[in-house]
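Why show two proteins at once? Because comparison is the fastest way to build intuition. When a single record is shown, students tend to memorize it. When two are placed side by side, the eye starts asking what differs. So, the first record is below.
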Amino acid sequence: MVVPWRLVGVLALVLAGFGSAWQFQDWRYGRQFAEQSRLHGEALNQLATAGADAQKAEQDKRLALEQKLAASEQSHYRKLSDAQRDQDRLRDRLATADLRLSVLIDADSASGCDLPKATGAGGVDHAAVRARLDPAHAQRIIAITDTGDRGLIALQACQDYVRNLQH
């Protein structure tokens, strides 16, 4: 059998051409995959950086809120202790008779009563008819105002807390 060398040569050239084309295509796909891999890696890095930045911003906001709330709580506690100290002083002054509570009485309704008029530079009402309160009643009034003061301070603290949360 005679082998046509020309045919073998042509076939070898065709196969070599296919092989180089296959290699070129493989190289091209490899380059595209490498580029996609690089872009994908960059995108993941950007997402990770953005996530870390967002987390840091949220932590900073939380820390700022915690500091505001701590300052508000200290202020609330200071107001509460100041009010308590003032109430205690007032109770002590009432107990030692250093201070007496009195009420204004309508001059028309008290015309039959012989009550002393308030005197002294410290009075606000000029020549008004006043009646002194029993010390036990004065203590109860002070206790009621103490409860009211505490309630108002607590309400203000709650309002401050909500305002801090909203900002």
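Second record. Ask yourself what differs from the first in the token line.
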Amino acid sequence: MNAASLDLTIREFQPGDEVAFRRLNEEWIIREFVLEPKDQYSLADPQGTILDHGGRIFFAVRDGEAVGCCALVAMDPGEFEVAKMAVTLAAQGSGVGRQLLEKVVQEAKASGATRLYLETNHKLTPALRLYEVVGFRRLPPDRVVASPYARADVFMELWLASH
């Protein structure tokens, strides 16, 4: 663990975190792609679109500032989508994303989830590497379900229990 990660705290969503959730996600989406209707929907009301439906949102906080976030969006029973994962540019490469993702996977397991799913884009190479290191595997084309996101072209899953 490097010195930069020692002062990192990972905590769940608190009232008022809506602004940081939007800021962190808009930063990378606008830089790499374009905000899509589904982004605007979930970023406008994370309480109503994620939390009220059994989902959870986690934040990586350093020196009182949210530098990363990741959501677990409830899907089918025992399944969550790992979504809206973002690490601010200044904190990238310091292990924040890995600590955040490992915490999200651990919390999903603790809640009894058996499968995590995610959608990403092939050009997000550091993110793809991180997902693979943590254990996510690409879905074969015959198991891919159409995404509401135009940018989604890589679909992955992580089994948390035998299936």
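One difference worth noting in the second protein: DSSP finds six helices and seven strands in the chain.
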